[in-house]
Amino acid sequence: MTSDQIDADLHERLTQLETENRALRTQLDGYPSVVEDARASIPRSRGSGWTVLAAVLIVLGCLLAPVAVISGWAKSTLTDTDAFVATYAPLAHNAGVQSFVVDQAAAAINQNINVEQLTSDVIDGIKALGTRPRASVALDTLKGPATQGIETLVRNGITDFVASDAFADTWDRALRLSHTQLLATLSNDPQALVAAQSDGTIGVQLGPIIDDVKAALLARGLSVAARIPAVDRTIPIAQATQISTIQAGYRSVIALGGWLPWVALIFLAAGVLVARRRGVALVWAAVGLALSMLVLAIGLTIGRAVLLTAVPPALVPGDVTTLLYDTATTAMKDTAVIGLVLAVAIAVVGWFAGPFQTPRKLRGFYTDGIASARNNAERRGVTTGGFGDWVYQQRRVLHLILALAASAAIILLRPLSVSDILWTLTIAVLGLLIMSLVERPQRVDAVQPAPAAA
């Protein structure tokens, strides 16, 4: 090969490189966002004080999160009579609660009606009419069985009524009255009725139940029920030695329950925004929130065991105490589990999209795989054409819309469940995958070099 041929080849190669360079510059000018993104990715110099501030805000938000869940539940349940009734109304159909109510109602009736004395007076009245000695002895022996028979009839009547559909309405009415009186007691209203006894017992008013039981017994023909007076008694569901402490806690719930959840979220968001490395801060904030929700769930489980030891079985049977506690804390447990799952999901997404070495490699594998699948499809004549070009140009806007839609679904879905979070995350990931396959980035090798100059 002569020197002239070598010069010609070098000239041709140089011309080809210049043509490709012009094509690359033209493509880069058509996508200025690439340069802007590259500049935005350069970390700004911030002092270590910002890192300390971000850590403090995130820690405060994580510490406030469990308190916010409890105070939010307390405000919605303790201050709203309808919510309180809706929470405890299903217990009317529970066999353990029904048995407990039967025992309490029978005890209240027996305390107000001396069946033994009433039976003795009736038999003595018969004897006073004049009976033979052997008949008098026989009547005396009937006093015990007659007393037990009347008590059995009363208890059977109470049991039948509690097992009937009418008891649900009575139970709702008793709950509503009890909650109204409880609110008055917690508010330290001097006109409040007895919702909390002198020994700190808090429970459901038995009066409405006794009234309906009395009517049911009279309808069965048990005339002795007419002697049942109005009963002012409480079915105990909890006991606290210091009512003043409960009143102080109630006032705190009223003051903090409404806005404390927002404060916790603001602290977490602010901690991420002021951090020097927001991606890392987002992952740590999500991990901290997940741990706080896990601690709350464990604390609620431990609280049940503590309550069982604090409430004596003589006051409330253990199974009823457990049922009442689980009914009261179900909403908080669900919120803790949902918060835990949501925080873990955010941590995983933040880690995958963050500036870490392993997710960078994973993102590279994902990008290469998508590009390979797209190129193979185009070589076989399957292409999205102009629509794919538009999707690529508007990809950031579309990603933002998808993120906002997923966030709105999680915020607006009520009641929110773990399955809702998982489905939302799955749909968002599928949406990103579909957009990655549909978009058509302009390839450099698709630009044909200009013919070499003669």
Any overview of this molecule?
- The structure is a single chain.
- This protein has 454 residues and is mainly α.
- Among the domains are: 14-43; 75-250, no CATH class.
- Helix content is 75%, strand content 2%.
- The protein contains 18 helices and 2 strands.
- A two-stranded antiparallel ribbon has the order 1-2.
- It is elongated, with a radius of gyration of 38 Å.
- Mean pLDDT is 78; it is low at 31-36, 38-43, 192-198 and 444-454.
In brief, what are we looking at here?
The chain is 75% helix and 2% strand.
Helix-strand topology string: HHHHHHHHHEHEHHHHHHHH
Strand fraction equals: under 5%
Strand order of the largest sheet: 1-2
Biggest sheet details: 2 strands, antiparallel
Structural class by helix and strand composition: mainly alpha
What attributes does this structure have?
454 residues; two-stranded antiparallel sheet; disordered C terminus; single chain
Task: Describe the secondary-structure layout.
Elements: H1 3-30, H2 32-40, H3 48-78, H4 81-88, H5 95-112, H6 115-128, H7 133-141, H8 143-163, H9 166-186, E1 201-205, H10 207-219, E2 234-239, H11 243-256, H12 260-273, H13 278-310, H14 318-353, H15 357-379, H16 385-393, H17 395-412, H18 418-438
Antiparallel strand pairs: 1-2
